[in-house]
Amino acid sequence: MSRGVFFFPCVFLPLITRRARSCVCPCAHSGTQHEEYLFRDYLTNIIRTHDPTTPLFLNYNPKLIHYPLQAPQEYQDKFAHIETPNRLVYAAMVNFLDDQLKNVTGELKAAGLWDNTLMILTSDNGGFVRAFLSLLL
């Protein structure tokens, strides 16, 4: 891999996020943190230490908006008005992803890289919300 090229493979980190039947992020109870915070910190470090005279390719593949439906509590608290638990957590996950992208763009701007950056956002079908499935049956 050449200098200035960083890939973020979709890696499952079982100590940071793991499947749970509830919508509560297990990291809140295990003394760890949500993996997206780790990715944010890693991206931030790459951007801050990158030589702006050389090209930089970042590939960030967040697993937010997919099962398991988990989001940090502070994001869930923003959507307490949503009564359906899955939808509440899903909205929190989308907001969490928005903030992660805001953090990356802010770092690129602070490093003077934003004006020469092409950001491409793609998506798959997103997360599966069980409450929706019951409407189809």
Structural notes for this entry:
The structure is a single chain. This protein has 137 residues and is mainly alpha-helical. It has one domain (5-136). It is 42% helix and 6% strand. Strands 1-2 form a two-stranded parallel sheet. It is elongated and about 50 Å long.
Write the layout of secondary structure elements.
Blueprint: E1 5-8, H1 27-30, H2 35-49, E2 57-60, H3 73-77, H4 85-110, H5 130-136
Parallel strand pairs: 1-2
Write a short abstract of this structure.
With 137 residues, this protein is mostly helical.
What value does the Rg take, in angstroms? 17 Å
Put simply, the count of helices is: 5
Strand order of the largest sheet: 1-2
The helix-and-strand class reads mainly alpha
How many domains?
1
Helix content: 40-55%
Q: Strand-residue fraction?
A: 5-15%
Q: Strand tally, please?
A: 2
